[in-house]
Amino acid sequence: MNPYIPIIGMVVLATGFVVVSMILSVLVGPGRYNRAKYDQYECGIQPTPQPVGGGRFPVKYYVIAMLFIIFDIEIVFLYPWAITYNQLGIFGIVSILLFIVTVLVAYYYVKRRGGLDWD
């Protein structure tokens, strides 16, 4: 049980901080309640009623998000390679070139299909 005492202490400390913060915000915070305070806020524009289906995003939005994740993961793989570049030798150069060529082929395919065009 001894190894868990610091973890339990941190959980108790965090819970205590949350409870004390919530109580103090109610006691010390201003109590001016009005309709505008509890109304939805959409960047200064009056909120519009949502459609029955909850509103739909275009599919292109999700495609761009997935492409961002893919190219972001590429950078995550390139960073360790760049750190150990001198130690890998010819095997490291060939493997990273194959990786970059694969990603560039995918990028070219997406660009050619119009996946990166914002209409």
TrEMBL record:
Where does this polypeptide localize?
Answer: Cell membrane; Membrane
A matching Pfam family: Oxidored_q4
Tell me the superkingdom of the source: Bacteria
Keyword Acetylation (UniProt): no
Membrane-crossing segments per the record? 6-28, 61-82, 88-110
Q: What is its main location?
A: membrane
Which catalytic reaction applies to this protein? Answer: a quinone + NADH + 5 H(+)(in) = a quinol + NAD(+) + 4 H(+)(out)
| Job description of the protein | NDH-1 shuttles electrons from NADH, via FMN and iron-sulfur (Fe-S) centers, to quinones in the respiratory chain. The immediate electron acceptor for the enzyme in this species is believed to be a menaquinone. Couples the redox reaction to proton translocation (for every two electrons transferred, four hydrogen ions are translocated across the cytoplasmic membrane), and thus conserves the redox energy in a proton gradient.
**Family statement:** Belongs to the complex I subunit 3 family.
Q: What is this protein called?
A: NADH-quinone oxidoreductase subunit A
Q: Which organism is it from?
A: Arachnia propionica
The major lineage groups are: Bacteria, Bacillati, Actinomycetota, Actinomycetes, Propionibacteriales
